[in-house]
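Priority: low. Protein: tRNA pseudouridine synthase A. Input follows.
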Amino acid sequence: MKIQLIFSYDGSKFQGSQTQPHENGVEDALKRALSHVGIFSKITSSGRTDKDVHANNQSTSVECGEHFSDLERLKSLINRHARPHINVKFIRRVSDDFQPRFDAISRSYRYVISHDEFSVFRANYELFLPKFDVKKANELLSLFIGRHDFSSFMKVGSDTKNPVREIYKAFCYEYKNKTIIVFKANGFLRAQVRLMVAAVLKGLKHKNANELIKKQLENQAIFTRMPAPAQGLYLNRVHYF
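Result:
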């Protein structure tokens, strides 16, 4: 039977989510945990995240025997070997034709910025910056909403054939002493979220930021090519319904 796993992981402990030559990717660690409970099939995930990017709810599927009928017990067994850097939150049985990547209708990310005094213990999980104008940031974020060719907002060397994506939501809000930036789209290009965050943060220092970001969106000029640091980024959810 085929099962879907929803799990979180600490991206700072891995060299990215995909299998790596030295077996230090998220999928490598999950594969080892699964093998301990007797599951050896290929792992198929909804997508990949770069080194130091975290996930709250990554989605993946594997094939396993029918004898794994007690999914709560299976979750406990997997977590015994996956923790502390990976935590399986939920397991459900899915149809044999379920595809975590291609069946997803949208994905959402969050970027966490702390305005506290810098802490070495939180440096792998937040970007530390002074407080900024959230109203202005939301004005700049709104420029990304809609269907655009994001060729100028993807990592150089990306192998995508279609750079067009549709952004459904792009906004930020204050929570305690943090600013949380939220994106939801039908899909994202490699490093796209980090490049959009970088454009907004840089734009807060420019009077004509709206025009500069619009020109990059229209692929007429480059405002920024340096992505925001990876440690503040979280794959928040993969949506199927």
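The beta strands are 2-9, 44-45, 54-63, 86-94, 106-114, 127-128, 146-149, 164-175, 178-185, 233-239. The chain has five helices and ten strands.
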